[in-house]
Amino acid sequence: MTKSPNNIKLIGGNSHPQLCQSVATKLGMPLARVGAFQYTNSETAVAVGESVRDEDVYIIQTCCDESKINQYLMELLITINACKIASARRVSVVIPNYFYARQDKKDKSRAPITAKLIANLLQTAGCDHVITMDLHASQIQGFFRVPVDNLYAEPSVLRYITEQFERKDLIIVSPDAGGAKRVASIADKLDVNFALIHKERQKANEISRMVLVGDVSNKICVLIDDMADTCGTLCKAAEILIENGASKVVAMVTHGVFSSNAIEKLNNSKLDRVICTNSLPLKDKAAACPKLEVIDISPTIAEAIRRLHNGESVSYLFNNVPE
Amino acid sequence: MRDLVVLGGSSHPHLTKSICRNLTIEQGQVLSKKFSNGETSIEIEDSVREKDVFIVQSGCGDVNDNFIELLIMISACKIASATRVTAVLPLFPYSRQPDVPHAANITGAPLISTKKDSYTFESTPSTPRPLSRGSSLNQSYFADSLPLSGNNNNNNTSRDGLLERATLNNLKQPQPTKGTYTPRSIVTNSASTNIPVVDAYGKTDNGYKQWVAQNGTLIANLLTTAGADRLITMDLHDPQFQGFFNIPVDNLYSRPLLKHYIKDYIPNYQDCVIVSPDSGGAKRATSIADSLGCSFALIHKERRAKVAKNPPSTYASSSSSSVNLLNSVSTSHTNVVATTMLVGDVKDKVCVLIDDLVDTSYTITRAAKLLKDQGAKYVYALVTHGVFSGDAINRVNKSDIDRVITTNSVPQLDNVSVIGPENFEVLDISRILAEAIRRIHNGESVSMLFDHGW
Predict the structure, then answer these.
(1) What is the dihedral of CA A138, A144, A145, A148, to 10 degrees?
(2) Which domain does B73 fall in, by range?
(3) Is residue B286, in this structure, part of any structural domain at all?
């Protein structure tokens, strides 16, 4: 029996209303009347105001806001479960910035692999498909038994670079060895050179010593990373690049977390510009930092949702930016 | 005790400490902190390999934060090769399924609980909506509809002292309380922009009856997914909750503890009346009343959607325009009417209200008011889980409850300081939990704890 055609239902979580709204606008549909709220005892509840029976449900929630991460996570789990018990045909979650992405390995005794736990929790709640973006480690896809589409901000980043800079002056720099692969691929596609900064890390979020590999003199350096959190790495890297004769340093990151005093650090740093995507809400941070520029990723997400719903291939989005 | 490790989450460190003291073991060390981006970080500092691990975490404070912390701790122990991980949840998070908030939209409770000097324990507070939008409209609507709901009996409004006395004289008559829908908890998060706007019937503008997801099974499944092998909890709001789990759940009772309190600290306890503040708790209260040989009374709350004789014509079409919705809200003469009835005689008696959980305290404070109105001499409130969220503790302080007795299933230090130790007593459950842990660890029966307490 072939199933009757169904519709997309787009549900926006409370973490990033602007992104939800612009994805909805790009898909040409309103957000579904489903919302999460909290009781005074701080338990979360989800109110469902329209039928999702037999529909194709997409829930957008991103990991952001230092004080509310676990709340948003519970909200997401409860929403998934609510749609599932309301007989949705398929529940897909769109998590541009994956929860606990950096807790992906047992790096010391008795450390939890929280990214794996989150994957299990999402599946327990009833999610059938995961869309995410620039996972900190793409192996996280293997933590799931359901399909995971790991989208890339790379095409958007490439387009920005080609629009903004002269190719001959450019050099792409990876701020750490872990990002070398990502940076090399971008450098290849742009046909420019790349350099690498090797850091010796002693404690999380604390960098001790950095070594530059490659020649950057009189070049515009583009530092590329998947995530900017406290921005210690980026600021240090920018200093080293300037010391080594770079004419200008620009940083491009996918997920701009900018926690604690990151904005202040950026303002005082040698960085000329910082470009990030709107995978996390920036709120007043954009206003507080004149160096910050934002690339909109909602077209990519909207197109991924459309393709997924229609059963088309998503791989087009790995190399192209939808209009 | 060999191979026994007790770890504590950050929700209730005092309880963990006293459980360990009762077990005469060292508490296992856990480093729980936040990464700079706000993610919870857990490091278990003692080895748990091949150990029997118990993790104590109560469903209080920031419930979501504490719950995720518990899940991460369970998972960390599990992948660190613990033989068995038992979650000890004195107050089970999400155990009480909240009411549908659309009713709160009509005659609901305050959005934000602020400390007030005066409370009315009969009328429902007036702020109606979970959302800021349109709240003023709704509020005026509510004010307009008040006389309608109060009118059906004696024209009395509780703000009028004379009429209130008139009600007191008519003891047999059910007391109408104005707009008496009592939400179990209050909606506070006005940042949620996606909550559907609903009309007085709880329907959204497309005619769909809004509902709120019930989280019981999800919470149970999440705990099992994280790797919990067994669960210890106390006084579950719904005993059926145990059936949501595929792992053993030991539901302990605080009843023996409460019974001891009544026997030992209430003078002439045989003459007092055990009162259940709602019909849901009747079973709990009767079993205590029976075993102590006390008499029993019940407060019964009826909720009825009262539809006006001429429903507004906008409803006939029930089409989905927003204009229509506004009309229906402002002109509808619909209300949820509730009456609170006392079944049983409490005149000149000492009353003992018994409930398993007090959150917003609306039910219990109103019950106390009703009891005093009916001539009760002194009102005790015996509550297993005193959550007292939002402004509840101040409300209790100003209410007709003379003495509150609760347990330390959630931290009570702040509450004691509000009400004062002479009128607020906290019973210690750490001995019961410690004994349950000891028995489970040794593979002994736990059932004697159900009857005798510890």
Answers:
(1) -50
(2) 4-90+215-252+431-452
(3) yes
